[in-house]
Amino acid sequence: MIRSKGLERDDRGYWVMRNRSGLLWTTHFYSLAELSMFPHSKPVAGPFSTQETAASVERAINKHDKGVPPVERKVMSEDGKGYWVMRANTGIVWCTRHASTREGLDKLKSTPLCGPYNTLRDAETVCLTVARNEAIRTSSEIKGSLPAAPQISGYRSLSKEEIESINNVKDAGNAVGALVNSLRKKGVDPRWLAIAETHLQQGFMALTRSIAKPEGF
Q1: 0.90 exceeded by the pTM?
Q2: Whole-angstrom Cα distance, residue 98 to residue 213?
Q3: What is the longest distance spanned by two Cα atoms in the chain?
Q4: How far apart are CA 46 and CA 39, in angstroms?
Q5: What is the pLDDT of residues 173-191, one digit of tens each?
Q6: N or C: where does the chain have the smaller number of CB atoms within 10 Å of the terminal CB?
Q7: Could you give the count of Cα atoms lying within 13 Å of 91 in the half-sphere of its Cβ?
Q8: Do 14 and 60 touch, CB atoms closer than 8 A?
């Protein structure tokens, strides 16, 4: 492990970690002993006095390894509260939906992979990267040993751009749904709100269908 120079004697700082899917990431301000909270990741370099230094080392290591592109953690508040990427006991990777400190994760039946991240979108990006890397690794090991998964009748395989467009529609739909729910709590006319909700749902479904272009009815 690469060690830094000239830090405090308590060995605290920012660390570059690598989890078992190969993803490089940078921690918050921790001591070496506190890194045991991430059982699925191992320290690669550190501790560093600033997050910017750790991030630059992360990029240098990844460039040298030519491995998985790093996902840089955003600057966090000093209390270390944010969104975390977790691994459940079943092996499933997921991210917390609410900002939390490390202590707040103890009640969950999962172990933290990396974090905390400044926004849920940052955590979801890392979560998808980890899941995709592990899925690619697993599929390459079993390639040819399993039959192809059956396709849904009338639906075709979507391109990366089409999937991204549908995800954008879903994000917009969730934002509109949140607006509808907030209005519901303010005592608006429930009949018109229900009509609006139904038509908005139909609109977003139509947008999704326009991108997916299914062949059936």
Answers
A1: no
A2: 35
A3: 69
A4: 17
A5: 888 988 998 998 888 999 9
A6: C
A7: 5
A8: no
Q: What is the pLDDT of residues 10-60, one digit of tens each?
A: 578 888 888 776 777 888 778 888 888 788 788 888 788 887 788 777 777
The secondary structure of 37-85 as a DSSP string is G-TTEEEEEEEESSHHHHHHHHHHHHHHHT-SPP-PPPP--TT--BEEE
95 has which bridge partners? 85
Name the residue type at position 162: E
Distant-in-sequence, close-in-space partners of 16: CB < 8 Å, separation ≥ 6? 2, 24, 25, 26, 43, 44, 45, 46, 48, 54, 57, 58, 61
The Cα–Cα gap between 139 and 149 comes to 12
Burial class (CB in 10 A: 0-12, 13-18, 19+), 162: middle
